[in-house]
From TrEMBL:
<dbReference type="Pfam" id="PF13245">
    <property type="entry name" value="AAA_19"/>
</dbReference>
<dbReference type="InterPro" id="IPR000212">
    <property type="entry name" value="DNA_helicase_UvrD/REP"/>
</dbReference>
<keyword id="KW-0067">ATP-binding</keyword>
<protein>
    <submittedName>
        <fullName>AAA family ATPase</fullName>
    </submittedName>
</protein>
<keyword id="KW-0347">Helicase</keyword>
<keyword id="KW-0378">Hydrolase</keyword>
<keyword id="KW-0547">Nucleotide-binding</keyword>
<feature type="domain" description="UvrD-like helicase ATP-binding">
    <location>
        <begin position="176"/>
        <end position="575"/>
    </location>
</feature>
<feature type="region of interest" description="Disordered">
    <location>
        <begin position="587"/>
        <end position="606"/>
    </location>
</feature>
<dbReference type="InterPro" id="IPR014016">
    <property type="entry name" value="UvrD-like_ATP-bd"/>
</dbReference>
<dbReference type="InterPro" id="IPR027417">
    <property type="entry name" value="P-loop_NTPase"/>
</dbReference>
<feature type="binding site">
    <location>
        <begin position="197"/>
        <end position="204"/>
    </location>
    <ligand>
        <name>ATP</name>
    </ligand>
</feature>
Length: 722
């Protein structure tokens, strides 16, 4: 620990005193909550209350680490402590002991600057180790302290956080969120928001902190859960700690490939196939295909209690028309209701006709009696006449309706005529039948080559089939009534949501959103039709097969004009020395954007060296070993073109060079290490969208970048600007 100056030592002692008090209160509140949970009643209301209390307990328990990390002194002398969660005093009317970082009252902590002090005089960041305050960083917020262009908030604390060794797990940034990030975290969530930012600008940080903020501010979102979509399982692993650390449990995180319960991707695919199958034109094609599978109008003859009843073709047509906008199985349910109603009416009508006949016959008989016996035995209006007056009572009709509704024979007959369908069979029918494909894809026709490629694909599902399956499943709807509606009995809403393809989420967050095809966008919108979506990404890092080079192109087919864009401009991860290399690479990737501005320097120059093919694996082992030693306690990652991944991994394993990941640029998306070794950078550029891939590879390090190129290739650092 460094020596503290006199004033800082005094400040540390004061903050320690406060932290001790806050920790004591924290522990008291936990005990109090435990007692409350134990004492809740066992009825429905009690259980719901206990669920809420347990959630609060969990949030509070996890907030002990980082309980207080900041302090804001207002110009009027008011002092507020900012922490991971809010803590109230015993006296309910008193000001809170600690303000939750997500509360409006904490906002100035992230946004006040000397040029815009928002009534504040000083911001203080606490450096805390366990339960001990080890230092403070103070930042005066008066106009004299203003620096031109100074847009970094709490610079000392931020640089200390950024300079730390990476653990392989992302950590929270609640103490040092920057102004442009905070604006996005707290932006309204009523329509889609797209956040464009270069590598390392904190897009993932912003996305995850936004989830925590939204769940805190809009409690109803916690009942619907929030969906977080990431590019790979490795990436989801990397961010897995952040939301629980922020106290959030109502979150489902997934890749798009794994989002449909029961469907697993079983094969890879060509880029061409992925591009073709990602196009928005599949949506109308699938709608048209599924619509064509509905039964056609015809006379339907049903048997009821030994008699036949025919629902005319015209009546069937009308009933079909009235359900045309609904998903296939849902439409069948409503259609079945119609038919049962028609049958009930027909049975009633026939009964009544029969009863009328019986009554008329009886009257004739009575008349004969009357004439013969000269006396009346059943004058009109007596009990006999009321029972057999040609109409069925309401109770009788209700009973009939119920029996028809419960009739297994009628249900089986209608299911035979309008059968259950499953999404996988229906999609396979479309994909492997050329004539059908041409017919239904007429709105966005595929050319002959494209048709041949799609119909010739092997069995099993590739990633681009998943959104198609989802679209089919959506058009079909669920077979069982009530499925897909947001209810169930599991304790955690996330478990219910995860198991239900049709779940509607309160909010959806997409990381690396630039990779989404149009059909994947459809899949997202289906899960949140209100458009409460935050998508973060960098259009310049796009590697996916689609051809979009702007957000507008990427989302026009699904979001239309209904979205706004926010930008992140400062790179927190990659040191300035490395960012300076990326300008020409970005230009070659076809971007018109400048790389983001690096906020910090690592003081380590990026390096490159050349090696021949045969010697490359050994050279990687040597370089990785050296980097591992230099960044001991941190992490090293290798990014290489496809063809080098296996040989380089083998060489590292054989040399027992530690647990160093060797990934393609695609696999490295969103990840970071203290040091990155980029292997055969020219090889990376020769892959499709290779310059974008190289841009990803170069921007993964927080400290040091090394490159091993093949002998004879130009050093990338000497690339001319284009
Ligand atoms: N305000 C902040 N305080 C502390 N650390 C931050 C802050 N913003 C970003 N970082 C750190 O900077 C690094 C990059 O952030 P992040 O991964 O969110 O960037 P990104 O924009 O998603 O990058 P990429 O496009 O490369 O995936 C991470 O280590 C993150 O913790």
């Amino acid at each position: 620990m460094r020596d503290l100056s006199g004033p800082e030592r005094l400040a540390v002692a004061r903050e320690q005193e406060f932290l001790d008090r806050a920790l004591l209160r924290h522990d008291q509140l936990l005990v109090h909550l435990e007692r409350e949970i134990r004492d809740t009643s066992n009825d429905h209301a009690g259980k719901a209350r206990a669920r809420g209390l347990r959630q609060r307990y969990e949030e509070l328990r996890r907030s002990r680490d980082g309980l207080v990390f900041g302090r804001l002194d207002a110009q009027d002398g008011t002092v507020r402590r900012i922490g991971r969660t809010g803590l109230r005093e015993e006296d309910e009317d008193a000001d809170p002991l600690v303000v939750d970082w997500r509360a409006e009252a904490a906002r100035a902590f992230y946004t006040a600057t000397p040029l815009d002090p928002q009534g504040q005089a000083r911001r203080r960041h606490l450096r805390v180790d366990g339960a001990t305050v080890v230092g403070v960083n103070d930042e005066p917020l008066d106009a004299q302290s203003a620096e031109p262009g100074g847009d970094i908030v709490g610079e000392g604390a931020l640089l200390a956080a950024l300079g730390q060794r990476r653990t392989g797990q992302m950590s929270t940034a609640i103490a040092t969120l920057q102004r442009e990030q905070d604006d996005i975290v707290r932006a309204p969530a009523t329509s889609p928001l797209i956040v464009q930012g270069g590598p390392g600008t904190g897009k993932t940080v912003v996305a995850l902190h936004r989830v925590a903020y939204l769940l805190f501010t809009h409690r109803q979102m916690a009942d619907q859960a929030v969906l977080v979509l990431g590019p790979s399982a490795r990436f989801l692993d990397y961010i897995a700690q952040v939301l629980p650390a922020l106290g959030e449990t109502a979150v489902v995180s997934s890749t798009l490939d794994a989002l449909i319960p029961g469907i697993a991707v079983g094969r890879a695919e060509s880029r061409r196939a992925a591009e073709i199958k990602g196009r928005a034109g599949w949506q109308p094609a699938i709608e048209s295909h599924v619509a064509s599978l509905r039964p056609q109008p015809q006379d339907l003859t049903l048997r009821w209690e030994g008699e036949s009843y025919t629902v005319s073709e015209e009546a069937v047509r009308q009933a079909l028309r009235s359900v045309s906008g609904r998903p296939y199985h849902h439409a069948r349910r409503v259609f079945t209701e119609h038919v049962r109603q028609i049958l009930t009416e027909a049975v009633v009508e026939r009964r009544e006709a029969m009863l009328t006949e019986v009554e008329e016959g009886l009257e004739d008989v009575l008349a004969v009696f009357d004439r013969g016996a000269k006396k009346s035995i059943a004058p009109a209006g007596t009990a006999v006449g009321a029972e057999i007056d040609g109409t069925m009572s309401d109770d009788e009709v209700d009973d009939l309706r119920e029996r028809i509704a419960g009739s297994a024979d009628i249900a089986t007959f209608l299911r035979g005529w309008w059968p259950d369908l499953d999404p996988q069979t229906v999609l396979a029918q479309l994909l492997h039948d050329e004539a059908r494909l041409r017919r239904h894809a007429s709105a966005a026709p595929l050319d002959d080559d494209e048709i041949a490629l799609v119909t010739g694909e092997p069995a099993g599902w590739a990633p681009s089939d998943v959104p198609l399956l989802d679209a089919v499943a959506d058009q079909l709807g669920s077979v069982a009534e009530g499925a897909g509606e947001n209810h169930g009995t599991e304790d955690f809403v996330a478990d219910r949501a995860r198991a239900d393809r049709g779940w509607i989420y309160g909010h959806v967050v997409i990381d690396e959103a630039q990779e989404l095809s149009e059909m994947q966008w459809h899949m997202v919108v289906r899960r949140c039709p209100t458009g409460s979506v935050t998508a973060v990404g960098d259009i310049d890092q796009t590697e996916a097969a689609h051809r979009h080079t702007s957000w507008d192109e990427a989302v026009r087919a699904t979001l239309g004009e209904r979205w706004t864009q926010a930008d992140l401009t400062i790179c927190y991860r990659t040191p300035r020395e490395v960012m300076e290399l990326t300008g020409p690479v970005l230009a070659r990737a076809g971007s018109r954007n400048d790389p983001p501005r690096g906020v910090r320097s690592s003081g380590v120059s990026p390096w490159e060296s050349a090696v021949d093919e045969a010697g490359l694996p050994a050279a990687v082992v040597q370089a990785v070993t050296a980097l591992g030693e230099r960044w001991a306690g941190g992490t090293v990652g290798v990014v290489a073109p496809d063809r080098w991944v296996v040989p380089v991994s083998k060489a590292l394993r054989a040399a027992a060079a530690g647990d160093v990941p060797v990934l393609t640029a695609t696999g490295a998306k969103g990840l970071e290490w203290d040091a990155t070794l980029v292997v055969d950078p020219h090889g990376i550029t020769r892959q499709p969208r290779g310059w974008n891939g190289l841009y990803v590879a170069l921007t993964r390090c927080t400290q040091e970048l090394g490159q091993l190129r093949l002998t004879g290739e130009e050093p990338l650092s000497f690339l001319p600007d284009e």
